[in-house]
Every structure is written in C-alpha cells, then in structure tokens.
Design a protein that fits this description.
The protein has 16 helices and 9 strands. By secondary structure, it is of the alpha+beta class. Among the domains are: 119 residues, Orthogonal Bundle (Helicase, Ruva Protein, domain 3); 65 residues, no CATH class. A 5-stranded antiparallel beta sheet has the order 6-8-9-5-7. The protein has a two-stranded antiparallel ribbon with strand order 1-2. It has a two-stranded antiparallel sheet with strand order 3-4. The longest helix is centred in the C-terminal third of the chain and has 24 residues. The N terminus is likely disordered. It comes from Hydrocarboniphaga effusa AP103. One of its GO terms (biological process) is peptidoglycan catabolic process. GO terms for molecular function: peptidoglycan lytic transglycosylase activity.
Length: 343
Amino acid sequence: MRKGLRRLTFFVGLTIATGASADYSRHPQAANLLKVLSTQYGFSAAELAQVQQALVSAQTIPSLIEAEQKAPERTETWSTYSTKRVDALRIKRGAQFMLDNRELLARAEMEYGVPPGVIAGVLGLETNFGRITGGARVLDALATQGFDHPTRSAFFFSELTEYFVFCRDFGFAPESLKGSYAGAMGWAQFMPSNYRKLAVDFDGDGKRDLWSVADAIGSIARYFNDYRPQLAWRRGEPLIVPATLKGPLDGRIERNGKNVAYRVRDLQQAGVIPAVKLPADMAVGLLELQLDPAGSPNKEYWIALPNFYSVMTYNPRVFYAMTVSQLASAMTAEAARLDQQSP
C-alpha cells in the first residue's frame, strides 16, 4: 500500500498546487442545480444562498479529473494490479481487522448474508481499513468533475446535487468534508447518493456515519443487497471458481462482462471446465485475465458466479471484483490461522 499512499499524496499535492478558485456559482449549469434543489428537494431561500456561497468557494482541480480517467482498474494489467493489492501486509491487516470486529461482521452476515471476508475486502481495497479516506475536499471534487469533466459530467453533476442534499440533511457544511478524487466518502467510500440511500446506523448511536467502522460494515452489507436488487447478494454462494480450457476458446464467447451471460453447461460445451462441480443450469459468466507481459498468451480463466457481479456494482471493473474476491479468501484463511494461535 506504500505505493498507493505515495500516489494519493501525489494527487493531493497536485490539488494544492493546481487548485484555483472557479466561482462555479456563475457557471451556466449552476442555475439548473439551484432549481433542482428548490423544486425536487425543497431547499429554502436561505439554504440556496448557502449552496451559492459554497459554489463561489469551490476550487477547480484538473488533476482530479486526470486521476479519475487514469484509475488503475483502467490502466494496469491484472498481474500488476493484483500484486499491489493482494499483498502480505494488507492480508495481515485484514485478518486482524476481521478478528477485531468479528461481532460486527457476524451481525452483518446474519442480517444481510454478506460474508465478513467480502466486507473486509472492500474496506481493505477502498481505504486500507480506514487509513486513507481521501484528501480532496468533496465540494471541490464534485464541482470539478460535475462542471468540467469531459465525458462524465452528468453523473458527477447529479452527485454534486446529492451532496448538497446530504450536507443539509446530515448537518455538514459543504466545505468541510474530504474524500476521494471522485467525491466518495468515509471508510466505505460511498458517493453522496448512496450515502443518503444506503448508509445504515449499525452501532445505534443515532447517526449514519461512514467514518465509523460499525456503520461502514453495516452499510457495505446493505449495499450489496439493496443497490441493484436484480444483482442482490446470494447468501451462501461463492464469487468465483477457477477454470481451465480444453482447447482454443471460441472468439464469440463473452469474457469479462458485467453480468451473468451463460449457464455452466454452455461454458462446458465451449471447453471451459470449472475446477469444482457446479450445477449445470447455474447462471455464470467467464473471466479472462491477461497476465504479464501484456499481449502474451499467458492468461487465466475463472467462472464468475452472481455474487461476483454483485461486487461489481460497487466498482464496475473486473479487476476490482477479482481483488475483493481474492482478498476475502486470503484474509479469511489468515484470520482463522491467527485465531487458532491465540490463547
């Protein structure tokens, strides 16, 4: 994670070096933002004035757009990506995290069906178990991305709108919170819309606080059930199964999609053999991962079960969901080993 920390520090440094006052209150889309807040969310005149003042103070930070466009899930090979993240230190930290929070994780699994290792895998990959929750002001990140992003401005503009509603409803000053280059917040790195809709008060203190470990654990578990109901978590089912090929794979077979595309029998007929027996009619997908060096014939294959695609709703990249899957397995095994050694 040291490299990841240096990379984050670099981007934060860019933020300080290149951030400039933008006065987004004068942007052509600002009037639309205020109208939506007024008509759809009932913002008062005083609340709209606070939003306008926040837009005046927002900084434009081009480096945040660059960070979003060059996210490692998009730019690295599988070998490079996984080696940096499924590492001994993160596995050790994750195992200890699971032991330290076993009661919370067990309750989350009981209520939502999501195993402790998967929840820990998300937290380990998103924020290194709360160590790195982001150094950019959420206001600056969402204003920059929402007003200036060349291809995804509509998404981020919607999240900027949600952020102002979130701040009003949760009692935060828009200028006060920090998060990722994309505006994600807390241990669980929820975007504002998901924070509003899916965060839970898992420790019963009357607040939905994703900077607290308990609420982050419960909220991740709920997310996998309620974010996209058609891909809701399936209690007791695994995420992935290794596979081998009997021969050359038909080029028409879909790889690395975002949902199940076949039945197990279909892949078996195409020469894809799972390492363990699966029901012939189970809905699955096929993963093909390029190993280093890029462009070489070295590839590995996995059969992805529905829960894998549930994880992909958190981040729609195969590398991300594969890493969560592998971290979950490795951390669960290490936690069991440590637990056996404890007096």
